[in-house]
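Design review, sub-item: ligand-bound model
Attendees: FS, YL, KQ
YL presented the inputs for the adenosine-5'-triphosphate complex:
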Amino acid sequence: MGKIKVKALRGVNLTINSGDYVSIMGPSGSGKSTLLHLMGALDKPSSGKILIDGIDVSRLKSNRLALLRRKKIGFVFQQFHLLQRLTALENVELPLWFAGVNKTMRTRRAKKLLERVGLGSGIYHRPGELSGGEMQMVSIARALANNPEIILADEPTGDMDSVSGKVTMEMLEELNSGGKTLVVVTHDREFGARAKRRIKIMDGIIEQEDTEPLSSPDRKPARNQ
Ligand SMILES: Nc1ncnc2c1ncn2[C@@H]1O[C@H](COP(=O)(O)OP(=O)(O)OP(=O)(O)O)[C@@H](O)[C@H]1O
Ligand SMILES: [Mg+2]
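KQ shared the predicted structure:
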């Protein structure tokens, strides 16, 4: 930030295995988005390494990096980053276009994904004509377009009402059950508690990691156990 150095993360050492379901929680400004951007190879660390399938992504050239991201990673941005001039449908089609999928197949897949995330009638609307929750749905559908092995979602339900939020989390969890790796940054305690690995971050440092399975995500934890 200009001449001021911001240490957003410090001494992070983390291994995420294929098929894991990890939640990352922590106060605002603690470094959650920074960590997720690094994991998704959207950012480069000032020191240290980031390995994806054994490849040090912090050293890859930008075109190789773009290819790796397109093939392997679906990223749901906290701020959506949808293209304002394109409709919801076109936004979801875009990564398919980059992957060389033909128009008919692109539209078919994008429509199916938008239906799956629950955006019914808004598919021909531009982001400016959608609510925050609806933009989030488009952003999730776009992240899933190329069927990525790894899904990194930054507050994917932050702007949704509770029903849509629950439906969205269940959909992401279903993808995880099917073998996809899922990392979710969330402020929602209930959603955070559902993950098999739960990471707490504070001032750029991983403070705590819980891996004990919770008996049931819907049940309140028993106090006297
Ligand atoms: N581009 C940037 N330039 C300078 N500082 C930044 C930049 N992006 C983030 N920071 C700082 O890095 C720290 C971590 O930010 P980050 O966005 O990762 O937090 P967060 O945990 O995702 O917060 P939130 O819950 O509000 O989304 C904060 O102190 C923030 O001000
Ligand atoms: Mg953030």
